[in-house]
Amino acid sequence: MSRKGVKLLVDSLTRSSKHFNKSEVECLVNLFDTLVAKARSDFAGVGFNRVVFRDTLHSAFGMTDDVVLDRVFSIFDRDNDGCITVVEWVEGLEVLLRGTLDEKIKYCFQVYDLNGDGYISREEMFQMLKNSLLIQSADEEPDEGIKDLVEIALKKMDHDHDGKLSFTDFEKAVRDENLLLEAFGPCLPDIKSSMSFEQKIFRANS
Ligand SMILES: [Ca+2]
Ligand SMILES: [Ca+2]
């Protein structure tokens, strides 16, 4: 892209950005260009694919869970074409790094709603909890413990008692108790890795 093109892009992204300033947008566009160059010819010049996305989030934020990373990719890739464009990249990172509680509630709900049908089902809670807990647990019968956790979560969060969590259920529960935001497993960068990411990426211009 020409220098003028980049400048116009940065200006327009800065205008639409809720939480990043101009120099931060510039840094993220530079990082985007590096990633596109790494992504070979899949989406030449336009964006990068799932593999590059996963590697990047893995090394930047220590996110390793494939189920979570696949969901995060789908959330970033809003038009569902398998390619992360510069707009999708900046707007996605905005929620991860600077999101308000509202934005994060929406994001975490989308991660946990694995099949995207608008509800977090028992099975989805089970799968998420199993993924995030098994790594730490040496228990020989972990499934029973996880089933218990699912029932506890439903009891606490399923306000309309239909056996699954709607967005309204989830939102209300997290507003009452913020710690429930990542109730079914980590899906946001922890403070330490997001701070070091910002230091590394935004340092150039600040
Ligand atoms: Ca896309
Ligand atoms: Ca679902």
UniProtKB/TrEMBL annotation:
Keyword Transmembrane annotated: no
InterPro entries: EF-hand-dom_pair, EF_Hand_1_Ca_BS, EF_hand_dom, Recoverin
Keyword line: Calcium, Metal-binding, Repeat
Highest rank taxon of the organism: Eukaryota
Annotated Pfam families: EF-hand_6, EF-hand_7
UniProt-listed SMART domains: EFh
PROSITE patterns associated with the record: EF_HAND_1 (PS00018), EF_HAND_2 (PS50222)
One annotated GO molecular function: calcium ion binding
Record carries keyword Metal-binding: yes
PANTHER family noted in UniProt: CALAXIN, CALCIUM BINDING PROTEINS
The protein's name in its UniProt record: Calaxin
Protein species of origin: Corvus moneduloides (New Caledonian crow)
Taxonomic lineage from the root: Eukaryota, Metazoa, Chordata, Craniata, Vertebrata
